[in-house]
């Protein structure tokens, strides 16, 4: 292969890319300023989790305990079971032992994820990046050790594996998701089953969704009774959430599922505490919810917010599963935001679907 670096100087770029490039450079510079002026001090005083609405302080504390060999029973007990959503971020914090290296790794995973999606699908990478960065959860995920960037990475590999029908990449995506956030692994498997011959109603997506909700309605209160009871006690402080959780624990998830999803995606927009007792946690989740509104309006305008679009279907299946959490945490739904951003970034005429049901899985329709 003959590589000529000078060719880069002569390569034509689009007007959009020319405008976006300085914006991204400015964004990068701003994040480095935030990193050194806010993230580093928050790691030092242990306030990162509250300041940036992430669980980074927990991960770094656990990593510090393991590195020091303190054998803290609380830390060892929290890490002893599997699957475990602490393993990946704690291992990253333990291995890198540097907040700067963690941020650089996050940026690398973000760029690689965009590159994978751009290679696999007919999308506007610029639109995808802008939509992702519209949500402050993306920025906080780049700044601190967390699970969301790994969610993006595993989802990009999963989608690419489906596009290319590559079983090895599928196993890598599932393994990474299982190691990082097992709920996303479950979502991937449910989507695969829903689209396969194992599901006799695979062409009837709404019916499949109803069957999934019905199954969870009875399965979780039985199989997860102890965990649900523990998490319910933790959520006692939340009024409306408590009511929904109570319905879920008493075999009425069919009534609670839509309000719970709506509470996660839009709840902070009507939360009076955002203005009465403002803090960074509330602001981050407020603008997270606002980003969902903007994204959904874009999809409505493009006439792509339909279950026949595989990415929308994938996200809806996942939302039904993840909404079982007995706490309201918009970050849990970041995978859905990624999927909707990818749908909105599709290069095609309005109304054309990504992955209509009669097309091969995860193949973009021709524009």
Defining key terms:
single chain, 367 residues, mainly alpha, globular
The run of helices and strands is: HHHHHHHHHHHHHHHHHHHH
State the end-to-end distance: 33 Å
Rounded radius of gyration (Å): 21 Å
Q: What is the share of helical residues?
A: over 70%
Strand residue content: under 5%
Please summarize what this structure is.
The protein is mainly alpha-helical.
Describe what this molecule looks like in 3D.
- By secondary structure, this protein is mostly helical.
- It has a domain at 99-344.
- 70% of the residues lie in helices and 0% in strands.
- It contains 20 helices and no strands.
- The chain has helices at 7-10, 15-45, 48-51, 56-68, 73-79, 87-96, 99-120, 125-134, 136-143, 148-164, 167-180, 182-195, 205-223, 225-234, 239-249, 253-266, 273-276, 280-301, 310-322, 334-344.
- The longest helix has 31 residues, at 15-45.
- It is globular and about 55 Å long.
- The relative contact order is 0.10.
Q: What is this structure's SSE topology?
A:
Elements: H1 7-10, H2 15-45, H3 48-51, H4 56-68, H5 73-79, H6 87-96, H7 99-120, H8 125-134, H9 136-143, H10 148-164, H11 167-180, H12 182-195, H13 205-223, H14 225-234, H15 239-249, H16 253-266, H17 273-276, H18 280-301, H19 310-322, H20 334-344
């Amino acid at each position: 292969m003959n590589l000529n670096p000078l060719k880069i100087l002569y390569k034509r770029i689009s007007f959009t890319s020319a405008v976006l490039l300085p914006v991204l450079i400015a964004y990068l510079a701003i994040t480095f300023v935030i990193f050194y002026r806010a993230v580093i001090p928050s790691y030092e005083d242990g306030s990162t989790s509250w300041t940036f609405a992430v669980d980074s302080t927990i991960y770094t504390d656990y990593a510090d305990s393991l590195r020091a060999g303190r054998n803290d029973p609380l830390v060892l007990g929290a890490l002893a079971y599997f699957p475990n959503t602490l393993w990946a971020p704690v291992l990253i914090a333990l291995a890198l032992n540097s907040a700067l290296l963690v941020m650089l790794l996050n940026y690398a995973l973000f760029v690689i994820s965009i590159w994978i999606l751009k290679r696999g699908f007919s999308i506007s990478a610029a639109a995808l990046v802008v939509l992702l960065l519209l949500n402050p959860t993306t920025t906080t995920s780049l700044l601190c050790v967390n699970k969301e960037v790994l969610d993006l990475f595993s989802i990009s590999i999963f989608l690419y594996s489906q596009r290319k029908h590559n079983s090895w990449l599928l196993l890598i995506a599932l393994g990474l998701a299982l190691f990082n956030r097992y709920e996303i692994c479950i979502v991937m498997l449910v989507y695969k089953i829903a689209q396969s011959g194992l599901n006799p109603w695979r062409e009837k997506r709404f019916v499949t969704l109803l069957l999934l909700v019905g199954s969870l309605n009875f399965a979780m209160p039985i199989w997860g009774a102890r965990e649900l009871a523990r998490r319910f006690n933790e959520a006692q402080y939340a009024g409306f959430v408590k009511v929904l959780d109570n319905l879920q624990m008493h075999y009425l998830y069919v009534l609670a599922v839509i309000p719970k999803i709506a509470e996660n995606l839009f709840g902070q927009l009507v939360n009076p505490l955002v203005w009465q007792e403002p803090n960074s946690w509330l602001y981050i989740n407020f603008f997270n919810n606002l980003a969902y509104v903007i994204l959904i309006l874009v999809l409505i305008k493009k006439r792509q917010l339909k279950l026949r679009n595989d990415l929308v279907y994938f996200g809806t299946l996942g939302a039904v599963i993840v909404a079982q959490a007995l706490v309201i945490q918009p970050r849990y739904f970041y995978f859905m935001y990624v999927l909707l951003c990818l749908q909105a970034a599709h290069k095609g005429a309005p109304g054309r679907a990504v992955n209509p049901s009669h097309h091969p899985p995860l193949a973009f329709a021709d524009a």
